[in-house]
Every structure is written in structure tokens, then in C-alpha cells.
Amino acid sequence: MRALLQRVTDASVTVDGTVIGEIGAGLLILVCAMPEDTQATADALALKISKLRLFKDDAGKMNLSLVQTGGSALVVSQFTLAADTSRGTRPGFSYAAKPDVAESLYLHFADALRALDIPVQTGRFGADMSVSLTNDGPVTIWLDTDA
């Protein structure tokens, strides 16, 4: 799985003019399932994210995890993280998991974060979404379970 994490002071996702998910301080997680991914892959990614020390401690150093700060996660499915730009100028998306598999893994990933005591809000799989955020830092981290 691929994920792009953004440390935020707030974030929200809107579909058809209605806010369907929003958080205060925490992580906006854009996530993409790849064809070889499994529920175990999603679990491992959730565990890694829960332990990443991306938040400031009292000394101002990035030394605290999302769990330690009590922050939330806004999880949004984004198949474009699988974009292949190696040929031409129009990205290809054949490296993304098929929609039925991708949706299942996306939902499993969100549930895996919840199981780690992280409050989770989500977008809507396959919907045309507007995502708003205030990036804190800015801190943006790319994760790929194949790396």
C-alpha cells in the first residue's frame, strides 16, 4: 500500500457540498491499495503509522506518535498515488488495485487504525471529493509498504 501522510491542525473531506469527515489535530492519510496488497499489508501500514513520531514533544522535537498525542486520522482513498508517469504526459493507473479489492483494503486499513485506538474519519471510496487541510509544519511523509 502507498500512503501520503500530512500532519494537520485540521482537515475535512466534502462530497456533494456536504462535509462527510473532519478532524482536528492529527494526520490526513491519503491511501492507495496496490494489486499485491492484502489485509496483512493494511494492518502493517496502520501499525507503522500509529508509531511514527511525527508530533512535537514539550521540547519542540518530533518525538511523539499519533497515539501519544491523542490525535485523529482522516483517511481518504486516492488511487492516483499509483500513477505511472513513465510514458507520455497522461498518467496511467494500472498499478492500482482493482476497485473492489481497493475498497475492501481501504476500509480494512481504517478499521485497523481504529483498533489501535486512533479516532478515524473517512472519505467516500470512489466519490469526487474535496479535501481541505491545514498542513502543520509542513510535515508530509510518503510511505510505501514495498519499500
Walk me through what this model shows:
It is a single chain. A hairpin with a 5-residue loop joins β4 (53-56) and β5. The chain starts with a strand and ends with a strand. With 147 residues, it is an alpha/beta fold. Strands 1, 2, 3, 6, 7 and 8 form a six-stranded mixed beta sheet that branches. It contains three helices and eight strands. The longest helix has 17 residues, at 99-115. The mean pLDDT is 96. It has helices at residues 39-51, 66-69, 99-115; strands at 2-15, 18-23, 26-32, 53-56, 62-65, 72-77, 120-122, 129-144. The chain has a single domain, classed as D-tyrosyl-tRNA(Tyr) deacylase (D-tyrosyl-trna(Tyr) Deacylase, Chain: A, 3-Layer(bba) Sandwich).
Q: Topology of this structure?
A:
Elements: E1 2-15, E2 18-23, E3 26-32, H1 39-51, E4 53-56, E5 62-65, H2 66-69, E6 72-77, H3 99-115, E7 120-122, E8 129-144
Parallel strand pairs: 3-6, 6-7
Antiparallel strand pairs: 1-2, 1-3, 1-8, 4-5
Helix pairs in contact: 1-3
Oligomer: single chain
CATH superfamily: D-tyrosyl-tRNA(Tyr) deacylase
The largest sheet is: 6 strands, mixed
CATH architecture: 3-Layer(bba) Sandwich
- Secondary structure: helix percent: 10-25%
Number of helices: 3
SSE string: EEEHEEHEHEE
Shape: globular
- Determine the N-to-C terminus distance: 10 Å
Taking Cα atoms only, what radius of gyration do you get, to the nearest Å? 15 Å
Note poorly predicted spans: none
Number of strands: 8
CATH topology name, in short, is D-tyrosyl-trna(Tyr) Deacylase, Chain: A
Beta fraction: 35-45%
